[in-house]
Design a protein that fits this description.
The complex is a heterotrimer. Chain A is built from five helices and five strands, in the order E-E-H-E-E-E-H-H-H-H. Chain A is an alpha+beta fold. Chain A has two domains: 2-77, Ubiquitin-like (UB roll); 88-159, DNA polymerase, domain 1, CATH 1.10.150.120. In chain A, strand 3 (50-53) and strand 4 form a beta hairpin. In chain A, helix 2 packs antiparallel against helix 5 (142-159). Chain A is globular and about 50 Å long. Chain B is an alpha+beta fold. In chain B, the strands form four sheets. Chain B has a five-stranded antiparallel sheet with strand order 4-5-10-6-7. Chain B has two domains: 1-50 and 58-177, Uridine Diphospho-n-acetylenolpyruvylglucosamine Reductase, domain 3 (2-Layer Sandwich), CATH 3.30.465.10; 181-296, CO dehydrogenase flavoprotein, C-terminal domain (Enolase-like, domain 1, 2-Layer Sandwich). Chain B is globular, with a radius of gyration of 21 Å. Helix content of chain B is 34%, strand content 23%. In chain B, helix 11 (230-236) packs antiparallel against helix 12. Chain C is of the alpha+beta class. In chain C, a hairpin with a 5-residue loop joins strand 9 (211-216) and strand 10. Chain C folds into three domains: 16-133 and 210-287, Aldehyde Oxidoreductase, domain 3; 162-201 and 299-470 and 668-816, Aldehyde oxidase/xanthine dehydrogenase, molybdopterin binding domain (Aldehyde Oxidoreductase, domain 4); 561-661, no CATH class. Chain C contains 23 helices and 27 strands. In chain C, the strands form six sheets. In chain C, strands 3-5-1-12-9-10-11-20 form an eight-stranded mixed sheet, with helices on both faces. Helix content of chain C is 30%, strand content 23%. The two termini of chain C are 58 Å apart. The chains are: A alpha+beta, B alpha+beta, C alpha+beta. The interface between A and C is large, with 54 and 59 residues.
C-alpha cells in the first residue's frame, strides 16, 4: 500500500505516493527520475548516493523515504540555474579535471554544496576529512580536492565567516 | 527497497513504547545507519519497524541544574561534535563521535543507536563508559537508569528490554568537570572504519598540573564489550606527569584487564600491541590537553631512545 | 600540432557534473522485471537438486531458472578478441549457470520477479542439495595430490597452463649460470639470493556496479544494455553462451562508472539475456550487488613469486629467475595471459649479464575468479623485480637508484620473444627526474642511522609496459566520421569511454587530423554494436594508440574526401553552383586562389593545393611555402567548410554524403616505462606508514591531453597505494567463503589515506604512435607499492615480502627485527 508524502525536491513542493519500504535513493531515482543519485554499495560506504536533506549531506541508500516527509531534499539536478548555467562548484569540478568516470561526482558535488554552505575556510587536510565519506577509484582525490579548495576559497572571499 | 513488513513513525517516546509493546517482533529504528544495513543483509528480513527518527525531544543536548550533561539518544554524531555543551564538558566524546564512519553517516547516525546495538567497537561506547555515564531507558513501567558499565551483557546484547526506548545518556558533573581526555580510534584506514581498537584516556590533574589526580581508561574491541580498566586507572593515580613510568604503569596494568580475541580482522597479539601503545599515547595527549607544561611531561619511552631521541630531520 | 597536447576540457564533463550523463541503470524502462542470482554456499561440489516449491509461492515471482535449465553451451569470458586459430582461443569452461560448483558464490540459479524484494525473498527459499567436495582455495592445495580437478572435462589437474621463458638463449638456466659464474668470478665473489614475494587478491572497486538489462526487440534481437568495457566481445561471447548466431545479439554500452579490467570480461550479460528470453523477451534488469561484485566477478591475481638473483659482490647483475604461481580461482577468464605477462616483464626489465629464466603456472582453485585488472599482471611482476632489486642492493650496499640505472633494460631493447621494441627510451630520464624531484641523494644521506620509533625512508621502483597486445593477440580498431551540413561531424569510435577520457582524446585527434575544431566534433559516446564499428574495447592501454591510429587514418580519409569535393567545387563551372547561394563565395575563392598561386585555368586546381584549417577550406600552407609564399590563415581562407558540406548534401549535380570509415589493423608496439619515488614515515609501534611525498614519472610518449593524463596517473597511484598498504580480498581457506567482500572491510584508500600525488612526464615523440603517444592508462597503477616497500626498507632495514604491508604485518616484522 502506498503512502502519500510531501517533500520539497530541488525547490519544488512535491506530493508523492511511495512504498514505505523505499530508501530515499529508490524514490528519487525511480519515482522522480533523478538519476544523478547513484547506487554504489547500498550500505553507506561509498557516498555515491549522497543528497542533501534539510541542507545536510546524507547517504540516501540508508535513509527511508518516509523520513523525508515534510523535508527539503536537494540533488545535483537542483543545482543548475534556470538558463542551464552551472554552479561555481560544478564549474570548478570541470576546470580542475576532477571528473573521470563521473559516478562519484554528483554525490561529491552535493557534499561540496554542504561544505561551501558553511561559508567557512578549510585547509586541504580538513577538506580530506570532509569528503572522506566518498570513495573514488579514478582520481586519487587529487583534483577533487583541488576543485574543493578552489571553491571554498572563492566562497570565503565573497561571504566568509 | 527494504524487506520491511510494516513501518510506524512514532510521534513521541510514549507512542513508540506503545507500538513496541503492541508488536513483539517490532524493532526500533532511529538514524537507521545500522538497522537498515542489517536489514539489507537479509538476516532480519520482514521486520516491523518503529521509528523514532523524527522525535525532536530525543535530539536535545543539555546541562541540568546540577551540572550533569544530558545527551538525547537521538542526537546525531555531528550534533554531538558541534554542540557547545559537549565541547566544554565532554569534548572527548565529541571527538570520538567525529571518528564514526564518514560525514554523511555522522549526519544521520545517532549516539543511541551506537550504544544500543551493543557493539564493542562503538566509538562513543568506550568514551561514555569512561564517563561512567548512565543510560536512561523508558518503558511501559516507567523510566530507569542503567550505568553503561552494566548495560552490555555480551556482543550485540544489552539489558534494554524490547519495549524500552533509550532516551538519553547522563554524565554526572563530577565525572566531567576538571577532566580532559583523548580518544584514539585505530583503524586500517583513517576514515570509513570500524575500530580495530578504540582507546580513551581522561585525566584530572592537580591544580599545579604536576600530578594525576584521577584517571580514566576505557577501550573498545579489547574484549567482547566496551571495557574499562579500573586497575590501570588506580595505578597512575597520584603519579607525577614527569614520571616516565606513568606510561608503562598504565599500559602494563591495562594488559592484565583486557581480553581481546583473534579474528580475521586482527590477531590478539596485534590488538595487545595496540592496547599497550595507544593507552600510552592517549595518556600523554590527555595530560597535555589538561594544560600540563609540555617540557614537564615525561616523553614516551621507546626502545633505543632512552638517551637519544634523534630522528631524521625534514629535507627541504 | 594544434589540438593534440592541449588541455581540452573533457567532452563528457558537463553531463557528469550535472548528473545528466546516463549510465546503464539510468536508462531502464519503467515496469522492468528484477532478477537476482542464487550463489552456491559451498566452494567445491555438484548441485544435485533444487526444491523450488516455497520460492515459487512468493508473490511477485515470475520465473526461476536453475543450472539444469540453461543451454548446454560452454563459453569463454575473457575480453580478448576471439581467435580463429584454435590454439589461441580462450578457454570455454563455464555455462550460464553451473551444476559443477567451483567456488563459494558460483552462479547456480536465478529468480525473476516483479520487484527486488520478491526476488530476494524467493532466493532465500530455494533449497539446494549438493554433493560436496573439499574446498581447494590455495594454489598449494589445488596442486596437492588427490585434489579434485575443478574442470575435469578440460584439464586432468588444476593447472591451466605452465610456461617457460628465458633471456640469454632458449637453453639458459639459472642453475647453470650459477655454476658458470662460480667458475668465472670465483665462488667467493658471487652472491645468490632466494626470496619469496607475495601479492594480494585485489578487487577493482569501480564505483558503478556491474549492471545490465536485457529484452528481446521486435525484430528478434536480443538486446542488452550493459556497463562493459568491451561491447563487441560481449556480443560474440553472449552468442556462444546462448547458442545463437552472433547477429541475434545487440549490445549497448552507455557511460560507465569505471571498469579497471573487471568489465573487460563477459560477466552477467549472457545470464541476463537468457532470463529475458525465459520471460517472453520482457525487459529484465540484473544488478550485481557490491558483495557479489567483489566475490563473484573478477579479481586481480594473487601471485606468489619465488625470485632468485645471481650477482657479483660488487653488484653486477648476472642472472635472475622467477617461479610464479598465479591463483586463478574457479574459472579461466583470461587464463594464463596474465601470469605470462608478469613473467615477460620480469625478464625484460633488467639486463642480466648472463640471462633470466621464468617459469609461470596459472592454477585453478576454488576461490573467486581472477581476471584482467589494470596493468594485467605487471603490478605483481614489478613487486617481484623491485623487491628483488632492493634486496640485492641491501647486500651489496649499492644505491638502489644507481643500481637501476646501471642494470635496467637499456636503450634499443627489443624483446626477443615478441619482438616488441622500446622505440623511444625514456626510462633513465624518468629515473633522473624522479631522483631530482624527491631529493633522493640528500634524503638517503639524511635518513641514515635513525634510532627513533618514528623513521623516515625513501624508496623507488621502475617499470616497463607494452602498448596494446600486438603481436600476442589481434589489434584492430575502427572509426567512422560523418559530416553534417554545417561542417561539423559525428565521430563514432568502436573504442569505449570508461572514465579514462577516451572520448576527449579521440575528439582532439579527430580535430588535429581533419581541421574541424573540437567544438564541432560530436563524439558518439554510446557504443551500440548494431551501429558502432568494430573495436575490441578498452584494455591494455591500447585505445589512444591502436584506436587512435584508426581515428587518425579515418580523419585523413575524411579530409581527403572533403578536399576532393572542394577541388571539384572550385574546378567545375557547375550550373548548380552558379545558381546556389554559395555561387559568389566559391567564385571569389577561386579567383583568390588563382591569383595567389598564379594559376590560369580552373582545371589546374588540385586537392593537394587545399587544406582544412579551423573549419575552413584554405590554400595549403605547405604548398604555398614550397613556392616561397607565406600567408596567414585569413589570407589563405577560401570558404567555410559548412559551404562545402551544405553543397555536398544538396547539390543537384553531385550529391554526396561525405563520410569515412576505416579499420586499422595495428601491427606495431612499443614499450612505455617510468618510475615512482616515495618518501615515507613509519610509526613502528603502531605499524603505520604515512606517505609524505610521492611522485610517478612516466615515459608515455607525447601526451594528447596533459591535464587528463595527469589525472589518470593520480588514479593509478592511488590504486597502487592500496595494493601496497591496505587492499586484500581475504578468503576463509577452510570454506572458501570471502571475509571482506564489502567496501567497509575491503580497504580502498579514502581521501584521508591518500597523500598529495605528484606527477611528472618525460615526453618523447614515439614514431609508432599515431601522435607520438604510447601506453599510459595502466602504468600508473604499477610502481607505487614497491617504491613504498623499498622506502620502508630504507627507513627500518626491514624487507617486507608480502603486499599489502598492513599494520599487523609491519608490527610482526618490526617485532621480529627487535625494533619494537
Amino acid at each position: 500500500m502506498l503512502k502519500i508524502i510531501h517533500m520539497n525536491v530541488n525547490g519544488k513542493d512535491t506530493e508523492l505516493a511511495v512504498d514505505e519500504r523505499e530508501a530515499l535513493l529508490d524514490t528519487l531515482r525511480n519515482r522522480l527520475g533523478l538519476t544523478s543519485v547513484k547506487k554504489g554499495c547500498e550500505v553507506g560506504e561509498c557516498g555515491a548516493c549522497t543528497v542533501l536533506v534539510d541542507g545536510k549531506a546524507i547517504d540516501s541508500c540508508i535513509y527511508l523515504t518516509m523520513w523525508a516527509d515534510g523535508k527539503k531534499v536537494m540533488t545535483t539536478e537542483g543545482l543548475k540555474g534556470p538558463g542551464g548555467e552551472l554552479s561555481p562548484i560544478q564549474k570548478a569540478f570541470i576546470e580542475e579535471a576532477a571528473v573521470q568516470c563521473g559516478f562519484c561526482t554528483p554525490g561529491l558535488i552535493m557534499t561540496a554544496v554542504e561544505i561551501v554552505g558553511t561559508g567557512k575556510k578549510y585547509n586541504r587536510e580538513e577538506l580530506k576529512k570532509l569528503i572522506s565519506g566518498h570513495l573514488c577509484r579514478c582520481t586519487g582525490y587529487e583534483n577533487i580536492l583541488n576543485a574543493m579548495e578552489r571553491i571554498v576559497d572563492e566562497t570565503y572571499k565573497v561571504c566568509g565567516k | 527497497m527494504f524487506d520491511i513488513k510494516s513501518f510506524y513513525e512514532a510521534t513521541s517516546v510514549a507512542d513508540a513504547i506503545r507500538a513496541l509493546k503492541a508488536d513483539e517482533d517490532a524493532e526500533l529504528i532511529s538514524g537507521g545507519t545500522d538497522v537498515l544495513i542489517r536489514l539489507r543483509e537479509g538476516k532480519k528480513a520482514d521486520l516491523s519497524l518503529v521509528s523514532i527518527h523524527n522525535i525532536a525531544e530525543l535530539k536535545k543536548i543539555e546541562k541540568d541544574a546540577c551540572g550533569n550533561i544530558i545527551i538525547g539518544a537521538g542526537a546525531s554524531f555531528s550534533d554531538i561534535t558541534n554542540n557547545e555543551i559537549i565541547k566544554e564538558g565532554a569534548n572527548v566524546l565529541g571527538e570520538a563521535a567525529d571518528t564514526v564512519g564518514g560525514p554523511q553517516i555522522r549526519n544521520v547516525g545517532t549516539i543511541g543507536g551506537n550504544i544500543c546495538n551493543g557493539a564493542t567497537s562503538a566509538d562513543t561506547a568506550s568514551t561514555l563508559l569512561s564517563f561512567d555515564a548512565a543510560v536512561v531507558l523508558e518503558g511501559p513501567e516507567g523510566v530507569r537508569e542503567v550505568a553503561v558499565r552494566e548495560f552490555y551483557c555480551g556482543p550485540g546484547k544489552t539489558v534494554r528490554r524490547h519495549d524500552e526506548v533509550c532516551t538519553s545518556f547522563k554524565i554526572k558533573n563530577e565525572e566531567w568537570e576538571g577532566f580532559e581526555g583523548h580518544y584514539i580510534k585505530y583503524g586500517k584506514r583513517n576514515a570509513m572504519e570500524i575500530a580495530t581498537l578504540g582507546c580513551v584516556v581522561r585525566v584530572k590533574l592537580s591544580a599545579d598540573k604536576k600530578y594525576i589526580e584521577d584517571a580514566r581508561l576505557a577501550f573498545g574491541v579489547a574484549g567482547p564489550t566496551p571495557l574499562r580498566c579500573l586497575k590501570a586507572e588506580a595505578a597512575v593515580k597520584g603519579m607525577s606527569v614527569s614520571d616516565a613510568d606513568i606510561y608503562e604503569k598504565l599500559a602494563t596494568t591495562a594488559l592484565t584487564e583486557v581480553n581481546p580475541r583473534s579474528s580475521w580482522r586482527a590477531s590478539k597479539e596485534f590488538r595487545l600491541q595496540l592496547i599497550s601503545e595507544l593507552s600510552k599515547r592517549a595518556l600523554r595527549e590527555a595530560i597535555l590537553k589538561s594544560g600540563a607544561d609540555e617540557d614537564k611531561v615525561a616523553p614516551l619511552p621507546y626502545k633505543g631512545e632512552e638517551n637519544d631521541t634523534e630522528s631524521a630531520g625534514e629535507v627541504r | 600540432m594544434n589540438t593534440v597536447g592541449k588541455d581540452l576540457i573533457r567532452v563528457d564533463a558537463y553531463g557528469k557534473v550535472t548528473g545528466e550523463a546516463h549510465y546503464t541503470a539510468d536508462l531502464e524502462p519503467k515496469g522492468i522485471l528484477h532478477a537476482k542470482v542464487l550463489h552456491s554456499e559451498i566452494a567445491n561440489g555438484v548441485v544435485k537438486n533444487f526444491d523450488l516449491t516455497e520460492a515459487l509461492k512468493v508473490p511477485g515471482v515470475v520465473k526461476i531458472v536453475t543450472c539444469f535449465d540453461v543451454p548446454d553451451c560452454q563459453f569463454p569470458t575473457a575480453g580478448h578478441p576471439w581467435s580463429v586459430e584454435k590454439a589461441h582461443q580462450d578457454i570455454c569452461d563455464r555455462k550460464i549457470l553451473n551444476k559443477r560448483v567451483r567456488f563459494y558464490g558460483d552462479d547456480i540459479a536465478a529468480v525473476v520477479a516483479e520487484d527486488e524484494v520478491a526476488a530476494a525473498r524467493a532466493l532465500k527459499l530455494i533449497k539446494v542439495e549438493y554433493e560436496e567436495y573439499e574446498p581447494i582455495v590455495t594454489v598449494e592445495k589445488a596442486l596437492s595430490e588427490g585434489a579434485t580437478p575443478l574442470h575435469e572435462d578440460l584439464r586432468k589437474d588444476n593447472i591451466i597452463v605452465k610456461s617457460h621463458m628465458t633471456m640469454g638463449g632458449p637453453d639458459f638456466s639459472f642453475e647453470k649460470a650459477v655454476d658458470e659464474a662460480s667458475e668465472k668470478y670465483g665462488k667467493d665473489n658471487i652472491e645468490v639470493i632466494d626470496r619469496v614475494y607475495n601479492t594480494p587478491r585485489i578487487s577493482h572497486c569501480h564505483l558503478e556496479l556491474p549492471v545490465s538489462w536485457a529484452y528481446v526487440d521486435t525484430n528478434g534481437k536480443i538486446t542488452i544494455t550493459s556497463s562493459t568495457q568491451i561491447p563487441h566481445i560481449v556480443k560474440s561471447c553472449t552468442a556462444m553462451a546462448l547458442g545463437v548466431p552472433v547477429g541475434k545479439i545487440r549490445i549497448i554500452k552507455p557511460y560507465i562508472g569505471g571498469g579497471f579490467g573487471n568489465k573487460q570480461d563477459v560477466l552477467y550479460e549472457p545470464l541476463n539475456a537468457f532470463l529475458s528470453m525465459q520471460v517472453g523477451g520482457r525487459p529484465v534488469r540484473l544488478e550485481i550487488s557490491r558483495e557479489e561484485t567483489i566475490s563473484c566477478t573478477r579479481t586481480r591475481h594473487a601471485i606468489e613469486g619465488r625470485c632468485r638473483a645471481l650477482f657479483t659482490k660488487d653488484g653486477k647483475l648476472l642472472a635472475r629467475k622467477l617461479e610464479a604461481y598465479a591463483n586463478n580461482g574457479a574459472y579461466a577468464s583470461h587464463g594464463h595471459a596474465i601470469c605470462a605477462n608478469c613473467g615477460t616483464v620480469f625478464k625484460d626489465l633488467y639486463a642480466d649479464e648472463m640471462g633470466a629464466e621464468v617459469d609461470c603456472a596459472t592454477v585453478y582453485t576454488s576461490s573467486p575468479t581472477a581476471g584482467a585488472m589494470r596493468a594485467y599482471g605487471i603490478p605483481q611482476s614489478i613487486w617481484f623485480t623491485e623487491c628483488l632489486a632492493d634486496d640485492i642492493c641491501n647486500i651489496t650496499g649499492e644505491d638502489p637508484c644507481d643500481f637501476r640505472v646501471r642494470s635496467c633494460m637499456q636503450e634499443g631493447f627489443v624483446d626477443p620473444g615478441t619482438k616488441i621494441p622500446f622505440l623511444t627510451y625514456g626510462l633513465k630520464k624518468c629515473i633522473e627526474e624522479g631522483r631530482k624531484y624527491i631529493k633522493w641523494d640528500e634524503k638517503r644521506a639524511a635518513y641514515k642511522n635513525q634510532k627513533g620509533h618514528i623513521r623516515r625512508g625513501v624508496g623507488m621502483a621502475i617499470f616497463c609496459y607494452k602498448t596494446g597486445v600486438h603481436p600476442i593477440s589481434l589489434e584492430t580498431a575502427s572509426c567512422r566520421m560523418v559530416l553534417n551540413q554545417d561542417g561539423s561531424m559525428q565521430l563514432v569510435m568502436g573504442a569505449t569511454e570508461i572514465g579514462q577520457g577516451a572520448d576527449t582524446v579521440f575528439t582532439q585527434m579527430a580535430a588535429e587530423t581533419t581541421g574541424i575544431s573540437c567544438d564541432k566534433i560530436y563524439i558518439v559516446s554510446t557504443q551500440d554494436t548494431d551501429v558502432t564499428p568494430f573495436d575490441t574495447g578498452a584494455y591494455a592501454s591500447r585505445q589512444t594508440y591502436v584506436s587512435g591510429k584508426a581515428c587518425k587514418k579515418c580523419g585523413e580519409l575524411l579530409r581527403e574526401r572533403i578536399l576532393e569535393y572542394a577541388a571539384y567545387m572550385l574546378v567545375n563551372e557547375i550550373s548548380d553552383i552558379s545558381k546556389t547561394v554559395y555561387a559568389e563565395t566559391v567564385k571569389a575563392a577561386k579567383d583568390m586562389m588563382k591569383s595567389a598561386l598564379g594559376i590560369a585555368e580552373d582545371s589546374d586546381i588540385k586537392p593537394e593545393m587545399l587544406d582544412i584549417e579551423n573549419n575552413a577550406i584554405v590554400m595549403r600552407e605547405s604548398y604555398l611555402k614550397e613556392r616561397g609564399s607565406e600567408k596567414g590563415f585569413e589570407e589563405r581562407k577560401l570558404f567555410e567548410l559548412s559551404v562545402l558540406a551544405d553543397t555536398a548534401f544538396y547539390s543537384l549535380d553531385r550529391s554526396q554524403h561525405i563520410t569515412a570509415e576505416v579499420t586499422n589493423h595495428c601491427k606495431e608496439n612499443t614499450f612505455a616505462s617510468g618510475c615512482c619515488f616515495a618518501d615515507i614515515e613509519v610509526d613502528m609501534p603502531l605499524g603505520k606508514v604515512t606517505v609524505k611525498d610521492v611522485v610517478n614519472v612516466h615515459d608515455s610518449g607525447i601526451l594528447i591531453n596533459p591535464k587528463l593524463a595527469e589525472a589518470q596517473v593520480h588514479g593509478g597511484m592511488s590504486m597502487s597505494l592500496g595494493f601496497g598498504l591496505s587492499e586484500e580480498l581475504l578468503i576463509d581457506e577452510k570454506t572458501g567463503k570471502p571475509y571482506n567482500n564489502n567496501l567497509l572491510d575491503y580497504k580502498i584508500p579514502t581521501a584521508m589515506d591518500t597523500p598529495d600525488l605528484k606527477v611528472r612526464f618525460v615526453q618523447l615523440d614515439d614514431p609508432s604512435g599515431p601522435y607520438g603517444n604510447k601506453a599510459l592508462g595502466e602504468p600508473p597503477a604499477i610502481p607505487v607499492a614497491p617504491a613504498i616497500r623499498n622506502a620502508i626498507l630504507n627507513a627500518t632495514g626491514v624487507a617486507m615480502n608480502e603486499a599489502p604491508m598492513t599494520s599487523e604485518r609491519l608490527i610482526k616484522a618490526f617485532k621480529e627485527a627487535e625494533l619494537i
